[in-house]
Amino acid sequence: xxxLSVDNVSVFFLAEGEQAADEVMVRLAAFIRxxxxxLDFAIYDMRFSDxxxxxxxxxxxxxxxxxxxxxxxxxxxxxxxxxxAAGQDPAPSGTGAFVQSLGYLWRxxxxxKLMHSKFILRDGQTVWTGSANMTDDAFTLMENNVVEIDSxxxxxxxxxxxxxxxxxxxxxxxxxxxxxxxxxxxxxxxAKVRVMFSPGCGLEIDTEIARRARAAQRRVRICSLLINSxxxxxxxxKLLRHGRVTVDGVYxxxxxxxxxxxxxxxxxxxxKIGALKEIIAxxxxxxxxxMPYSAPGRHNYMHNKVLVIDDTVITGSYNFSRSAxxxxxNILFIESAPLAEAYSAYIDHLVxxxx
Length: 355
Description:
alpha/beta, Endonuclease, Chain A, eight-stranded mixed beta sheet, 11 helices, about 35% helix, about 25% strand, globular
């Protein structure tokens, strides 16, 4: 596990077999123990083994006894099997039971799609976010990144999104929050970060990602579980055909092969199969062969959702897919040359690991 921490932005990276679950939990517990007033969790998947649960519970209990208010919003357990034909995505079972067993305020967040965010808001001031779910597999078997940002201005946006989820208990018609870039610092240099939320700004997010890819001057580096967005696929194809910008990176080959099967069943999506395969071949994208999904099985996905475009890092819970537009998600656009280099070095490492 590599770590970087300067100023009010820090990031750490996870890779399969390269850190113990206890190491990540120590960092999470330290984040929790710094709380003075409140801890708000927006959670998609939270299911820890007994040892990790004990560590988490201890940190939460300590803060609760000090008067810290603790709340959990979690993705409402979907019926098993979900109504996929109606557009209802599956969600791992067990999160509700785990959250409720902790003994703090909680609300199930309903909706046809997924409450897919994974963020913690501490004292209305500091945010923990990124791609990592709260599970043993996410901490040990998957590639993930976690960003911590200490910024009142940024945290205010997360607080607004959390309160919408908490009050509505349904993520549909949430996230339509007008946000602006806020100043932060990383590695001693000024930077800017903007957060956006879906589903309220889902279409705008897809458009913004495509706009930034289209405006790339030097590089587009991919580190993503999925590359599903037709808009993004179109822009990546144009970049490669023009040959002006380097496009490379890593993705999850196994999970995308399952997506190809889904696309084949929908006539208007079939064009994406050939288009993405051409992008993978032209860019030389490296695919991780992960374990196919199974409900009770362990999972070692290349789970990041990262684009590095020139000196901007795009990351969060938001997969680059059409479904993400309709989920509850959060995505960061961080303009910082040193942070982009940190992510780029991580991508280099994964490319070599799975080449």
